[in-house]
Automatic annotation (TrEMBL):
Its main location: membrane. It comes from Streptodolium elevatio. This is MFS transporter. It comes from the Bacteria. It is found in: Cell membrane.
């Protein structure tokens, strides 16, 4: 609800809720769209750049940029949560945008593959700081009743921007070449994101403190407000069945996203598709994923989280298997639509699970641990897909990730408890 929480005679009342904080919430949606656009500038162009410009023949070598991105982002996510609690959300957000500034130039003019990998290290830090912080800030603002909806809007903005930028850079590359023109979009995104975050975004840490002050005490000692970071990490990673199942599902989800990012374009190219067609396929998946989250996040607030996550993981597995079995553009379009729909069921719902279970006093750190595992999936997916593709074939790599995704869905079905019972 939007009832005020009084903090003291000298401090204005803080109101939780989407309606009460609509202006700042909407601004953060725009900022996260720019965060997604920074990632989208790579989705079509970089796999082709590895093949055509830098002539990397081994799949494991060509996927090093995803490995660098995923490992860096995963670690940065963890620190983003801790730093957001210690220093505030806004300084972490601004720092993330400052680190983003050189990335488009490195991608556009880097003289060797090592420069591209370094750009993705910086991009991982940028994404870890900015995306984690926009997630935390939106959860701060909306309070406990609309977390699924808030995460739906957050993730929708980011991944619709990924899709739009992937399609735009594919179209630019088909006319102007792979470098430098496609990456000029990223330069504009970084400048605009830094400006908005510095000048217009307001701190939200006091909203979390207000919610924590009104939070009912728990009989479970593991849910108290004063857990250490180590205890939070253990609970989120291992001991709490909902938090740890969400972390596992998130890691597998991003392992299959690494496959879609780094391997699918090469598979499509091997069957004779043009750069423009590959750009369309690279955009369809995150477009359906992004737009669908506005529905699925809201839906999870009404029917619960667990069954949506289970269904989404199994649908992703079926879609990835269809990619492996397919050989034509339109079959792959259908597969990408299904993969996007499955991911839309999962992505905001997993974040909502973390928000449901974690105490407001340590929620930012729990989000950081979850995102450590989730975005570690990029590194896992790059290593696994690259190794299997080099040893056997691209198709074998795709089938392997399909099986892993199905297993993750079964783990959620068996192990996770419902964290937001239907109304």
């Amino acid at each position: 609800m939007t009832a005020p929480v009084t903090r003291g005679p000298a401090t204005p009342a803080i109101r939780l809720g989407l309606r009460a904080n609509l202006a700042q919430f909407s601004l953060l949606v725009v900022v996260n769209a720019l965060v997604g656009g920074m990632l989208g500038q790579e989705r079509t162009v970089l796999p082709l750049l590895a093949d055509e410009t830098f002539h990397l023949n081994a799949y494991s070598a060509s996927l090093t940029y995803i490995l660098a991105f995923g490992a860096t982002k995963a670690v940065t996510n963890f620190f983003a949560g801790t730093w957001s609690d210690r220093y505030g959300r806004k300084p972490v957000l601004v720092a993330g945008w400052l680190i983003a500034l050189p990335v488009p130039a490195l991608l556009a003019w880097g003289p060797s593959w090592g420069w591209i990998v370094f750009a993705n290290v910086l991009l991982g830090v940028n994404q870890g700081l900015t995306w984690s912080t926009t997630v935390i800030m939106k959860i701060d603002l909306v309070g406990p009743e609309r977390r699924g909806l808030a995460m739906g809007f957050n993730e929708a903005a980011g991944y619709v921007a990924v899709a739009a930028t992937a399609m735009a850079t594919g179209a630019i590359a088909s006319h102007a070449g792979l470098r430098p023109e496609p990456f000029l979009l990223g330069a504009a995104y970084a400048a605009l994101g830094l400006g908005l975050s510095t000048l217009a975004v307001r701190e939200t840490r006091e909203h979390a403190r207000a919610e924590a002050a009104a939070h009912p005490p728990s009989a479970d000692p593991d849910h108290h407000a004063d857990l250490t970071t180590g205890q939070i990490a253990k609970r989120t990673s291992l001991t709490d069945k909902a938090l740890s199942s969400a972390s596992w599902a998130g890691m597998v989800n991003n392992a299959n996203d690494a496959l879609a990012w780094g391997v699918f374009p090469l598979l499509f190219k091997s069957h004779g598709l043009s750069v423009a067609q590959i750009g369309v396929l690279a955009a369809v998946y995150p477009a359906v994923w992004g737009a669908g989250q506005m529905l699925t996040g809201w839906w999870s607030d009404h029917i619960g989280r667990k069954h949506l996550i289970t269904a989404g993981m199994l649908l992703q597995a079926a879609a990835i298997a269809l990619v492996a079995a397919g050989t034509t553009f339109w079959v792959w379009v259908i597969a990408q639509v299904l993969l996007g729909a499955g991911t839309a069921l999962v992505y905001p719902t997993l974040l909502a699970v973390i928000g449901d279970v974690a105490h407001p006093a340590w929620r930012a750190r729990a989000v950081g641990v979850y995102r450590l595992w989730r975005d570690g999936g990029f590194a896992v997916g790059a290593l696994l897909a690259g190794a299997v593709a080099d040893i056997w074939s691209v198709e074998a790599a795709v089938w392997t990730v399909a099986v892993l995704t199905a297993l993750a869905g079964l783990v959620v079905a068996v192990r996770m408890y419902e964290t937001h019972p239907p109304r």
